[in-house]
Structure formats: structure tokens, C-alpha cells
Amino acid sequence: MAARKLLVPVIVGPTAVGKTGLALALAEHWPVTVVSADARQVYRGLDIGTAKPDRKTLARVPHLGIDVVDPGQRYSAGRFARDAAAWIREILPARRPVVVGGTGFYVRALADGLFREPPMDGERRTRLRDWSDAHPGLAAWAARLDPRYTGGGRQRAARTVEVALLTGRPLSWWQAQARSDGVIRPWYVRLSVPRAVLHRRIRQRADAMIAAGLVDEVRRLRERGVPPGGAGLDAVGYAEVAAHLDGLLSPWELPEAIATATRQYAKRQETWFRHQLRGAPVVTLDASEPAEQLARKVVELWEERGG
């Protein structure tokens, strides 16, 4: 008989809702190591715009899944699931893994499994990747080739186009029909707040990131040779700063541009998590409450279910 998969708390929700705050508060109750399921925090040097925990926080609560690759490199949900499986094995048994993040495809790959990728011609794949790296309308192509494409950045769009053109079937079909088993049994904690509260937090975060030096962070990455539309720099916040550095947004327009793009992204995240957390227990909590109070609730609910 196959070994029963580990039950793991998975904290999800839209950006700025308070996922990291809850994870840090849980560290007051459990010996926690956070596995970050965030498609932007994997990139080295993308610190301010991804709200990475600072050094003091990392010294107190270990995090895995941040600073994994350089900007411009591809990092897929499949690779995340394989890496995260290894990280979780390393964490146990001394500490408790807690998955935290807002990238739905990363969470799904870890919890529900990966689709078995069909063979694809290597030479055609290389040519197609060269084309997609330079093509400005990639998201529109992805939406035409896969009706279930819901966005997610340039890397996601490139992957959708690649699979559809090289296999003859959309990525969503492969994900539904050719899926392997997941690595963990997820126990989802979905955080939510009233929309007005989330929008206020998003604007406050945008202002704080700019004050902390987000523009200089992007400028340094460009000076290192990272292309403006490369993986990582196509993310919400970074794309708007790139437009500012190119003279397309004034300093006064930049904060609201970031906040607007972040609100749109958060809405997509909320929709995804409302409808895609199937086949596993889900606890929905109002993140308007203080993180310490939420952490006590999570611990009580976890103990009630025998976690």
C-alpha cells in the first residue's frame, strides 16, 4: 500500500491580504518553515516589489522557495512542485512545513499533481521560445489557443502557446486529462477581506514599495542586463516601473498604476481560489482580524481535525 501523503497547511489568498503575516504568527505556536508558493519571489533581486521577508524575519522563520533563480530565467509550476517536494522532505521531521502563496498554478501542481507532458520536438521548441521571447502580443495568442487561459504573466502565456502549438491540444486539456498525483494532502486556509479593505491595503503597499526604493531596484536589474519583459520583470509592479523608466508614466502616475494593476491581479487570484480548491478541506477566514488572532484560530481548527 502506498504511503499516505502528508497533510500540510496551505495559506492562500490574494496579494496584500495578509498571508505572510499569518504564517509568521503561526511561528509563535509551531516550529514553522514556510514554503513560498509565489511565482515572483523565486527570483533573486526581486525583493521590494514581491514583498519578500527581510533578513531579520528569515532568521526567525526559515523560508524556502525564494531566491531560487535569476530574473529572466523560466521557472515553471512543474519545477516548483518538484523542488517543493524536496524542500518538504528536508523540513521534516524537525519542523512543520506551511505552504504560503498566491500563485494558484504552483499550489495546484503541489497539491493536485503535474500533468504528464507529451513529447515535444526540441528544435521546434527552441525556435518557438525564441519567437515568444520577442513577441509583444503573447497573451492574446495564448487566449486564442486556449479558451481557459486566464492570464498569469508572460511566462505563463509562453507556456500556453508552446504546448498548444507543439501538441495540438491546449494546456488546460493536458492539465485536466493527463495529471499525476500530488505531493501533499492540502489543508487550505483561504484568507479574504472586504474589497474596500483589500484595495486600501494594496494602495498602501504600492506607496510603501516606491518609498522603499522599487524604482531603483528595477533600474539595477536593467543595468545587470535583465530584459524589461523577461521572466520576473513582467510581473505586476515591475512592469509599471519599467514603463515609468521608459518615460511612459510620470512619478505621480506610478503609484496608482501599480495599485490598479495589483487590484486587477488580486481579483483574478480571488476568483481562482474561490473555484479551484476542490477535493480538499478549505477554511475561509476574515483577514481583517489581527494575524495573532487568526493564528490562534488556525491552530485550534488544525487540532480539532487531528492535524
Descriptive report:
The structure is a single chain. This protein folds into 2 domains: 7-114 and 184-304, P-loop containing nucleotide triphosphate hydrolases (Rossmann fold, 3-Layer(aba) Sandwich); 115-179, Histone, subunit A (Orthogonal Bundle). The radius of gyration is 19 Å and the shape is globular. With 307 residues, the chain is α/β, with parallel strands linked by helices. The chain has helices at residues 19-26, 55-60, 77-91, 104-112, 122-134, 138-145, 154-167, 171-177, 195-211, 214-223, 238-245, 254-276, 291-304; strands at residues 7-12, 32-36, 63-64, 96-100, 185-192, 282-286. It is 50% helix and 10% strand.
Low-pLDDT runs of 5+ residues are none
What's the gyration radius in Å? Answer: 19 Å
Shape: globular
Question: How many extended strands?
Answer: 6
End-to-end Cα distance: 22 Å
Please write the string of helix (H) and strand (E) elements. Answer: EHEHEHEHHHHHEHHHHEH
What's the architecture of the largest domain in CATH terms? Answer: 3-Layer(aba) Sandwich
**CATH topology of the largest domain, anyone?**
Rossmann fold
- Percent in helix: 40-55%
Average predicted confidence as pLDDT? 90
What secondary-structure arrangement, pairings included, does this model have?
Layout: E1 7-12, H1 19-26, E2 32-36, H2 55-60, E3 63-64, H3 77-91, E4 96-100, H4 104-112, H5 122-134, H6 138-145, H7 154-167, H8 171-177, E5 185-192, H9 195-211, H10 214-223, H11 238-245, H12 254-276, E6 282-286, H13 291-304
Parallel strand pairs: 1-4, 1-5, 2-3, 2-4, 5-6
Helix pairs in contact: 1-13, 3-4, 5-7, 6-7, 9-12, 10-11, 11-12
